[in-house]
Structures are given as C-alpha cells and as structure tokens.
Amino acid sequence: MRKIDLKDYEFDGKPYPVTGTLSILMFNPDLKLSARDLIVQDALAKKIEGAGESVILEEVDYLKVKRAIETVKGWQRGDLEFVSRILDAPEIEVKEA
Predict the structure, then answer these.
(1) C-alpha to C-alpha distances, 54 to 5, 37, 50, 61, nearest whole angstrom
(2) Are 62 and 89 in contact (CB under 8 A)?
(3) Residue 91 to residues 55, 94, 96: CA-CA distances in angstroms?
(4) Contact 41, 26 (CB under 8 A)
(5) Three-class SS of residue 19?
(6) What's the confidence (pLDDT) of residue 89?
(7) How confident is the model at residue 94 (pLDDT cuts 50, 70, 90)?
(8) Cα–Cα distance measured from residue 85 to residue 57, given in angstroms and rounded to the nearest whole number
C-alpha cells in the first residue's frame, strides 16, 4: 500500500491543486486507455477525488497512478513537489481490525 499526500501547495505564490491535477493526468491521451481501462481509471480517479488530504492505494492502483505520471512529458519546476509526492509515496502497512 502507498500513501499519497493530496494537500495543495503553493509555488511562486500560486496554488497548485494536487488532487485536480492528478485526476486530469489519469486520463492523459498518451496512456491510450481502452474502454475497460477508462472505466477502471475513472473509479480510481473518483477514489482520489473523494479522499481528502491523502489517499492510501493498493500497489496495483498506485502503479496506475505512477504510470500516468511517468507518461507525461514536459514537467516544470513547479511540478516537482507534485511528481515527488507520487513517485516517492511511502509504503505503509495496513493492519486489518
């Protein structure tokens, strides 16, 4: 399981909307999603959008998010915090009650 920090941050005095940006990138045309993949990706995006300040993802879902981030080209310095939060998301253990 991976925990991703979804809190917005500021860069050059402007807000960086982490959740919104991630949701948009999940549907990047370069991912070449099939119809089935689109449905699965949408469910994952909705989970992220409803998560609040952080989201805990199973490894299979984390890899989908990571793939979306790694597919994008043309990142800029203002994106560094965002990209780091995804690619360096800590692994966590979740214990069942």
Answers:
(1) 5, 24, 10, 14
(2) yes
(3) 12, 10, 16
(4) yes
(5) helix
(6) 97
(7) confident
(8) 13
Which residues neighbour 9 within 8 Å (Cβ) at sequence distance 6 or greater?
15, 16, 18, 81
- 3-state class of 18 per DSSP? helix
Give the residues across from 2 on adjacent strands: 57, 91
Total residue length of the chain: 97
Rg of the chain, C-alpha, whole Å: 13
CA distance 12 to 41: 31
The secondary structure of 20-88 as a DSSP string is HHHHHHTT-GGG---HHHHHHHHHHHHHHHTS-SEEEE-HHHHHHHHHHHHH-----GGGHHHHHHHHT
Kindly report the pTM of this predicted structure.
0.89
- CA 20 to chain CA centroid, nearest Å: 9
Structure token digits, residue 45: 């995006």
